[in-house]
Design goal:
The chain is mainly α. Helix 3 runs antiparallel to helix 5, helix 3 (37-58) runs antiparallel to helix 7 and helix 4 (65-74) packs antiparallel against helix 6. The protein has helices at residues 2-14, 24-35, 37-58, 65-74, 76-86, 93-116, 143-161. The protein is built from seven helices and no strands. It folds into two domains: 1-35, no CATH class; 36-161. The longest helix has 24 residues, at 93-116. The radius of gyration is 17 Å and the shape is globular. The two termini are 21 Å apart.
């Protein structure tokens, strides 16, 4: 829901229909997010990485093929973002956006596969099935939805921090 709200505000802003500058509170929040986009993205990506490790290593949930593909694109994000903070490099979007977009595409594909048990998912019949659902909070939050949310948030923060795109 937060992502949808952010995207609607982004579209309205680009269309000139939403002027957050008239709202002091929104202006402060946006200013903070623009100034600290790398820190917020690091927090989100580190939470996603540690959460996936918690699910597999502590709870014993075996990741499926699509979950592993999502992990491949999520795990480098904290390293890239922390490196950009330590070295004070602001061009981290060039590296984070492609990884996040590819991971997001995989998660968007995985979500309906998991919900509808599509057989054409390309997952192995021998290993953990991609339609296996370990958790479903509030009726719709599964592991792929968590990946969609975290990757979308990282993408939004990277776009927010790039003056050329926003």
């Amino acid at each position: 829901m937060l992502l949808v709200t952010a995207l609607v505000i982004f579209i309205l802003k680009k269309a000139g229909l939403f002027d957050y500058r008239n709202s002091e509170y929104l202006s402060k929040v946006k200013g903070l997010a623009e100034d600290r986009y790398r820190e917020f993205a690091l927090f989100v990506s580190l939470s996603a990485t540690s959460g996936s490790l918690y699910f597999s290593e502590i709870l014993g949930w075996t990741p499926c093929k699509l979950c592993w593909l999502q992990r491949i694109f999520i795990y480098p994000l904290p390293v890239l973002l922390l490196t950009s903070l330590v070295l004070d490099k602001r061009d981290v979007q060039d590296y984070v956006l492609p990884l996040s977009l590819i991971g997001l595409a995989i998660a968007i594909y995985h979500y309906p596969v998991q919900l509808t048990a599509m057989t054409s998912s390309g997952c192995s019949a021998v290993a953990t099935s991609c339609d296996m659902t370990y958790t479903r909070m509030y009726g719709y939050i599964t592991v792929p939805m968590m990946a969609i949310t975290s990757l979308s948030t990282v993408i939004y923060l990277m776009l927010l921090g790039d003056d050329d795109l926003m």
